[in-house]
Predict the structure of phosphoenolpyruvate mutase.
Amino acid sequence: MKSVYACFSTDVIHEGHLHIIQEAQAYGELTIGVLTDEALIKFDRFPTITFDERFQMMQKLDGVAHVVAQSTVSYTENLQKLKPDYVIHGDNWKTNEQKIIRDNVLKVLSTWGGQLIEVPYTRTEKVQHIDKVMHDKLAMPEFRRKRLRQLLQLRPIVKALEVHSGITALIAEKTIVQNKEELDQFDAMWISSLCDSTAKGKPDIELVDMSSRIRTIDDVMDVSTKPIILDGDTGGLIEHFVYNVRTLERLGVSAIIIEDKTGLKKNSLFGNDVEQTQDSIAHFCEKIQAGKQAQLSEDFMIIARIESLILEKGIADALQRAYAYVAAGADGIMIHSRQKTPDEIFAFCDAFRQKDKNTPIVVVPTSYHSVLEEQLAAHGINIVIYANQLTRSAFPAMQETAASILKHHRAKEADAQLMSIKDIITLIDEM
Ligand code: SPV
Ligand code: MG
């Protein structure tokens, strides 16, 4: 009897999957590979049921002889182990971002004369509806809020991209790239105070108030499913912070990062060029404790941001604060630096990890941008935030276009750099 292999990443079995299973029967005995959570989140959306549930769901299906785990987006490992005569898949992957996976399957199969069977992809109204329901479920507060904690368990390093509007949220949500034999995407979104303020043409001094920040959060949430980390600046007055924690939690935000500064907040990247005052350890701990007491769910995270390195107070001060903030209940710490190299960040993390193996560490490599994610992970860092790159790429592009129109008294010269009208009007999916 010949053997057939298919890989499924789905949470729901619909007619499309049943069609593939049925077609497979004509070729031989079917083994289904179920993508592990670690692999699935690089390739597709976050699962709404557990790996075990997905595995058992496949075992119950008629026409499925064996079920195995597939722990990489690439089929190579499982194919080399099973050496199937056939792989079966929907034909949609010929053109979408999965093409690299397909190309690789063909290459591996050819080494023992295996064949790829492609069946027409099922895109009925019912299938589309199921897809949409799964997508919308992920956007709901109860599902979204806990996802940052889930990702911390699944990812060697969680990658967050700055967003400040619906359109930037769509970019963070949908950008997926081919990386060697794998696919990859961002895990989370960072709503930066700098970029949220900049988008409104305002300075980053806590002038854009929480009501306005919530408006941005709402715009982002409307079009996305990924978890949100909010830049909460100083967190404001303790008496106000406790209310804001509840509001953010109810909205489905996963984490707020508050920084240990007081008085008129200025952007950290100014460093000591402007007057910035660090909060006392005791007062900042009080703020963390009050926030933790106010929150209702287990999911929400309050992350304490340490500004000691920004203010050139040294690693010993940063460490003392980190331990105090964790003892006060912080669910994570963010250590910030404006050096061109990651040396002081690494020195801090290595020292911190000697005593604390588990508290998540967050970093924002804006000035030390050469550092690779795997280097950060090797120093015990759990979350990397790309805090302002979308804003900084969009602004010069818009400025250049404006100048070109003025200079040439028409839009033609600018047009070559622009997205086509067709692409822009079809960019946004309609309900
Ligand atoms: C932000 O993105 O607003 C931040 C990070 O707080 S930084 O601008 O580097 O201070
Ligand atoms: Mg900020």
Notes: The pocket of magnesium ion (ligand 2) is lined by residues 192-194, 204, 231, 233 (CB under 6 Å). Residues 272 and 311 are 6 Å apart (CA to CA). The longest helix spans residues 389-408.
